[in-house]
Design a protein that fits this description.
single chain, 183 residues, mainly alpha, two-stranded antiparallel sheet, 5% strand, binds zinc ion, transmembrane
């Protein structure tokens, strides 16, 4: 999935926090967006492996949630939201396509690396590839809670993210061929 789609999922998680504890809405939004996008920074390294940890993020997210429940402040809430969003990102990449520049031409079959088991998880391709039309639709659906719950800068950021997703989706294939050509 696109980094923006993962960012919207992080924001949807933050929207749940905002409903439960409105005073921590902004802390959760920052943690959710950052955690939703962070794993994809490894596109500059070994994509879907260097910063994607489906198992380890999940393992540390659970105690972080417990800590945020017991000691509730902006730091614990933003860290817990970050880790939950990063865990959901890493796990959900297994539902998408392969980490190829041109996944529609690739014979790769793996999606995301599961460090704990020292192997790749297979690509389920519910979303065929990042920037596929269904990826854009999923992103918009996950953006809805944030658009309803948040206002001001967060809502503006969400709308900007939808525009970025739309442009990327429109040009995904030429971008992929250009990147594959460079490699
Ligand atoms: Zn990813």
């Amino acid at each position: 999935m696109m980094a923006t789609t993962h960012g919207f999922v992080g924001l949807a998680i933050a929207a749940v926090v905002a409903v439960i504890a409105p005073e921590f809405a902004v802390a959760a939004a920052i943690g959710g967006i950052a955690g939703g996008i962070f794993p994809d920074l490894d596109v500059l390294a070994e994509h879907r492996r260097t910063l994607h940890f489906p198992g380890y993020y999940t393992m540390v997210a659970l105690p972080a949630l417990g800590l945020a429940y017991v000691v509730t402040d902006v730091v614990t809430v933003s860290i817990a939201t970050f880790l939950v969003a990063a865990a959901v990102h890493s796990l959900s990449d297994a539902l998408g396509g392969t980490p190829s520049a041109v996944p529609w031409e690739s014979d790769l079959d793996h999606a995301v690396y599961l460090h704990a088991a020292d192997r790749w998880l297979p690509a389920k391709r519910w979303v065929r590839y990042d920037g596929a039309p269904e990826d854009f639709v999923a992103g918009v659906v996950f953006a809805v809670p944030a658009l309803v719950i948040f206002d001001g800068a967060i809502r503006y950021l969400a709308v900007t993210g939808i525009v970025v997703s739309l442009v990327y989706t429109a040009f995904r294939r030429p971008i992929g061929h250009a990147v594959a050509g460079i490699k």
